[in-house]
Amino acid sequence: MKTRITILFLITLSINLLAQSFMQNPYGRQSISLNGKWDALIDVYCQGENSKFYLNRQPQSKTDFVEYSFNNSIRLDVPGDFNSQYPELKYYEGNVWYHRNFNATINPKKRQFIYFAGVNYLSKVWINGKLAGNHEGGFTPFQFDVTTLVKEGNNDLVVMVNNNRKIDGIPALNFDWWNYGGILRDVFLIETPLVYISDYKVQLKKGIKNTIIGYVKLEGNTSIQKVELSIPELKLKNTLTTDTLGYVSFEFKANPQLWEPDLPKMYSVTLSTGNETVKDELAFRTIETKGTTILLNGKSVFLKGVNFHEEIPQRMGRAYSDADAVMILSEVKALGCNFARTAHYPQNERIVRMAEKMGIMLWEEIPLWQGIEFSNPAILKKAETMLREMIYRDKNRGGIVIWSVANETRPSEYRDKVLTELVSLTRKLDDTRLVGTAFDNAKFDKTTSTMNLNDNVAKVVDVVGINKYFGWYNPFPVEPNQIKWDVANDKPLIMSEFGGEAVYGQHGEADVASSWSEEYQEQLYRNNLTMFRNISNLCGMSPWVLFDFRAPNRLHPTNQDGWNRKGLISDKGQRKKAWYVMKEFYNEKK
Ligand code: GCU
Fold it and tell me: How far apart (Å, rounded) are the C-alpha atoms in residues 409 and 49?
């Protein structure tokens, strides 16, 4: 009986793990990059599927009629959004068909996967005219096992991408960033053994600095098999034995040097079976809350942060490369930060890995942004999938300290239920990190000059993020130093967004909001920092936002022109006066 229960438990667990649709860490594996120039057709009236573009048919006879072709079509860089590659695609939302060829060698002892690090928003993938699968969601990876579709020699790969905003999408119809569409991130052809290392977790046990725990999951026609886990610098080499489902968990003592922002120690870790090796670089640290403080490795830490979008403003497009990551994160470090919020969605794995290496803790979030149709049962399912994919992809990234399930959603019975379920799912998937959410519904009570938050979801998270734009969307109700705060006093509070707009080089009165001047933004920051002194449980802050970024809703013709100008740095990389206010504050903040 006991064996039956164990097997049932493991089957459930592996199905749970199987629920993910991609392998862990493509960057540490043997793979062929499919990045580069792809052929593309702009399918404005969405006729491509009816016309079977995915067959990439060539005329076979004199009378054969084919009214499309990828030969001599426009060509798009992959990775990269299509909006920034052709002026006429600047605002494009709809279908774009991508095509490329690739060569493959068939080995009956190997499996072939196509791995997409991120495609926004809907995608469908065909290999040699046969459907490999589809995916919804613009900010997490997915893969298809194409072993039975790939042939020896030349193969056709066709991807249909649609970036239309949808009422039942996540995010939905309205959001304050550019709706960049396309194959935004890396694409790989990955060959694996028939039974391969599909997933693993190697992290410190929750709150225990000298115990490493985790698991390895093999995929395929699994049987009991040896897997070696080695961390040479810790003189650790463990041979693990999986069960018949290819799963093995482990726990062992070790004394790693703990990762911290000033000394982001990383360890090379290798997982190998007889047929394959996966390499990773891991950070070991603990993160927890104690009352109203956040403890990193058991010591209280103040999160000196900033928000940034996954965008290179000079290129007016999505960031996707290591060079892009260095550009953004070097400015995060230059501001004096040890923390950053990756705005409202999981950013590409290169940025997440680079942040860890540079000693930047991250708040990572799924894009449940403001107006979401929480009453639609499909939303919870989609949000759960995105949450699972985010945590599944980044569970080994020690730099990530907070998972966030939403941003500025309106309290309601449906919303409270969905977010509460997402918070508990987060804890089930990963008990080692903090769970947060950003709220913009803290209210000022003028009878007591106090900020309050009445929100059921604030009761269930570990960390409360507050977005408040005093001085911008509404003036300070009283002098900043007169405002008292009585928000989530039993737990850590992070000012997850604050700020205001300024056009770099535009100067004016420091007390005239419509001046859109650097002086106004500078004074606004000083006023907010004054007010923050009254927040007894303040454990961190992330001003909105590092760079000016593109946003279609920002329509003031002279001051915005499709840009949100809350950047501390302009779209050309120039630091505004407010940047120096934050720099000085972080320099002095211990
Ligand atoms: C909101 C939102 C951001 C937006 C910002 C703003 O709080 O979270 O995505 O860009 O405020 O209004 O600039």
Answer: 36
The pTM assigned to this predicted structure is: 0.95
As to burial, measured by CB atoms within 10 angstroms (0-12 exposed, 13-18 middle, 19+ buried), residue 96 is: buried
- CATH number of 2-193: 3.30.559.10, 2.60.120.260, 3.40.50.1820, 3.30.420.40? 2.60.120.260
Query: What's the chain's average pLDDT?
Result: 96
Q: Does the beta carbon of 310 sit less than 6 angstroms from any atom of ligand 1?
A: no
Measuring CA to CA, which residue among 348, 482, 358 is closest to residue 79? 348
Mean pLDDT for 253-265 is 98
Ligand 1 centre to CA of 204 (Å) is 35
For the four alpha carbons of 355, 356, 360 and 362, in that order, the dihedral sign comes to positive
Of 444, 465, 17, 386, nearest to 198 by C-alpha is 17
The CB of 176 under 6 Å from ligand 1? The reply is: yes
CA dist., res. 547 & res. 551, Å (int): 12
Segment 517-562, tens digit of pLDDT: 999 999 999 999 999 999 999 999 999 999 999 999 999 999 999 9
Residue 11 CA to ligand 1 centre (angstroms)? 43
Spell out the residues 6+ positions from residue 65 whose beta carbon is closer than 8 angstroms to its own: 59
- CA dist 174 and 359 (Å) reads 33
Asked if the domains 2-193 and 196-288 are classified in one and the same CATH topology, the answer is no
**Nearest-5° angle of CA 193, CA 196, CA 198?**
145
Question: Would you say 480 and 528 are in contact if contact means Cβ atoms under 8 Å apart?
Answer: yes
- Report how far residue 258's alpha carbon sits from residue 360's, in angstroms, rounded to the nearest whole number: 14
Task: State how far the alpha carbon of 573 is from the alpha carbons of 443, 444, 520, in Å.
Answer: 35, 35, 19
* Residue 54 dihedral angles phi and psi, to the nearest 5°: -70, -15
Does the domain at 305-315+368-588 match CATH 3.40.190.10? Answer given as no
CATH number for the domain formed by residue range(s) 196-288: 2.60.40.10
Contact (CB, 8 A) for 151 and 130: no
What residue's CA is closest to ligand 1, atom 12?
A: 176
Q: How far apart are CA 581 and CA 526, in angstroms?
A: 7
Ligand 1 centre to CA of 497 (Å) is 8
If residue 358 lies in a helix (H) or strand (E), which one and from where to where?
Answer: none
Ligand 1 pocket test: pick from 175, 467, 550 the residue with the most ligand atoms within 8 Å of its Cβ.
467
* Contact yes or no for 245/11 (Cβ under 8 A): yes
In the predicted structure, residue 192 carries a pLDDT above the cut 70: yes
Q: Check if the beta carbon of residue 554 is closer than 8 Å to that of residue 174.
A: no
Strands (E), 338-457: 339-341, 361-365, 400-407, 434-439, 443-445, 450-452
- Asked if the model's pLDDT at residue 53 lies above 50, the reply is yes
- Tokens 């300070």 found at: 476
Q: How far is Cα 435 from Cα 430, in angstroms, rounded to an integer?
A: 10
Distance of CA 199 to the CA centre of its chain: 19
For residue 396, pLDDT over 60 is answered with yes
Listed residue (348, 303, 345) closest to 328, CA to CA:
348
Residue partners of 491: CB distance under 8 A and separation at least 6: 289, 291, 292, 461, 462, 463, 464, 537
Q: Which amino acid residue places its CA nearest to atom 3 of ligand 1?
A: 176
